[in-house]
């Protein structure tokens, strides 16, 4: 009777493993939204816990069959053969579910990381847009233009590492068919805004550099002119002090 019960337990265990394989491993999942992906991760975590909890039952079966084999070698030998098959299938099921759970967790981590990089670069784009707007309607002063240029250039020196990560993470998920529509839309919007703002910022940078150069040249010309006028003023003052007649002065002084 004990052998019959153990045989029944082995059959039930094998049936459970077949159902678990169909439910968790053979189902085709399509992850078209973050909610679907997150739910799949949670489901596979539950599946992993469920399968690992059966380890106690498998051990009890194994111990009982070993004890039966000692008492009734003939019945125990047949059950031991069946047990080995169940043990192999159980180990295979555990490994496959662990692997799928790890893969889904990695995919979810990849998605979260992509969002984090997009947030960082979006914040940088917002900053860049603000700096570009600050270059408009500047007072016609050398310091103001120089400060605006330096401020804009400091933002433009932003490294490209984050954009590289965004491109690679997005492409990895899209290649795997994971959230491909959502990611493509996000990347398209981000890249379009990046190209537009970068082009505008560089154009403003060039315009400010040219404006700054013109203002510096004008300032230099004014300085030279002021020095020349000051020298002429000193000469005229000297002539007047010495009471020199105008007709005795050089032509330019007259």
From TrEMBL:
Q: Which Gene3D superfamilies match?
A: 1.20.58.60
Q: Which residues form a coiled coil?
A: 3-64, 215-242
Q: What keywords sit in the KW lines?
A: Coiled coil
Q: Which InterPro entries match?
A: Spectrin/alpha-actinin, Spectrin_repeat
SMART domains assigned: SPEC
Q: What is this protein called?
A: UTRO protein
What is the taxonomic lineage of the source species?
Eukaryota, Metazoa, Chordata, Craniata, Vertebrata
């Amino acid at each position: 009777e004990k052998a019959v019960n153990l045989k029944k337990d082995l059959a039930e265990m094998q049936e459970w493993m077949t159902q678990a394989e169909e439910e968790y491993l053979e189902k085709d999942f399509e992850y078209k939204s973050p909610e679907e992906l997150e739910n799949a991760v949670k489901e596979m975590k539950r599946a992993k816990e469920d399968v690992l909890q059966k380890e106690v039952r498998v051990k009890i079966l194994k111990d009982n069959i070993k004890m039966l084999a000692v008492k009734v070698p003939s019945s125990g030998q047949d059950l031991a053969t069946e047990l080995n098959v169940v043990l192999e299938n159980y180990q295979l099921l555990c490994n496959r579910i662990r692997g799928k759970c790890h893969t889904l967790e990695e995919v979810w981590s990849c998605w979260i990381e992509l969002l984090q990089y997009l947030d960082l670069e979006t914040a940088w784009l917002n900053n860049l847009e603000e700096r570009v707007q600050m270059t408009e309607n500047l007072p016609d002063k050398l310091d103001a233009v120089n400060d605006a240029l330096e401020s804009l250039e400091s933002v433009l020196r932003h490294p490209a590492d984050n954009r590289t990560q965004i491109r690679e993470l997005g492409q990895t998920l899209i290649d795997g068919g994971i959230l491909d529509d959502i990611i493509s839309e996000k990347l398209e919007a981000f890249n379009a805004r990046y190209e537009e703002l970068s082009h505008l910022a560089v154009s403003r940078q060039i315009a400010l550099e040219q404006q700054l150069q013109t203002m510096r040249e004008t300032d230099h010309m004014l300085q030279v002119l002021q020095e020349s006028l000051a020298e002429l003023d000193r000469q005229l003052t000297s002539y007047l002090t010495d009471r020199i007649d105008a007709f005795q002065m050089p032509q330019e002084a007259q």
